[in-house]
Amino acid sequence: MSVTIEEIAGEVITRAGDTKRFLIAIAGPPGAGKSTMADNLADALRARGETAEVLPMDGFHMDNAVLSERGLLARKGVPESFDVRGFLDIIRAVRPADQEVLIPVFDRFREIAIASARVVSPEHRFIIVEGNYLLLSQGKWAELEGIFDYSIMLAPPIEVLEERLLARWRGYNLTEEQASAKVNGNDLPNGRLILENRRRADVTLEIA
């Protein structure tokens, strides 16, 4: 399916009607383009006079020290390496638009989550939640079913994901061997898990 950001912005505004809070999920494998699409959609909504904020799931990565204790550091990014309960609590707090909610944001350069780094206020009508496991049908992630008003699944071909992910890790000054180990040992297996165990989305796109 091919659809533009402008078309999606128009669709969600129509669906939102006069509701005070509208939650949009952008899900997909690592490297699918979720964060870029979320920022672009927020900009498109603001250009139409709407208020929007992005809520990234990556802010709920467990700290490296905790992952190390659990033997998960090398597999950072798998479903169990996130604070799912904390994420669910935040989404449920954001849902009614009756209070200010402070959310964490992940700093990829330092590999840590920064607490209370972004504010979701009651005035933000559209909240764009982006992350790998928003439509995952397994574990506690399945508790997100029904909470989003509109969902987008980004599902590029595996070869496209591999190319993008290798470029990402090279950008962090990893060697070719290190980048390949990250991609093939962790990112792509996570990507396949997401693509093979996803709930139905309102829109599914191969290219963001």
UniProtKB/TrEMBL annotation:
Q: What is this protein called?
A: Pantothenate kinase
Q: Membrane-spanning residues where?
A: none
Q: Name one GO molecular function term.
A: kinase activity
Metal-binding among keywords: no
For this protein, the record's Gene3D superfamilies field holds: P-loop containing nucleotide triphosphate hydrolases
Which NCBIfam families has this protein been placed in?
A: PRK09270.1-5 (NF006746)
Identify the InterPro entries for this entry: P-loop_NTPase (IPR027417)
List, alphabetically, the Pfam families matched. AAA_18
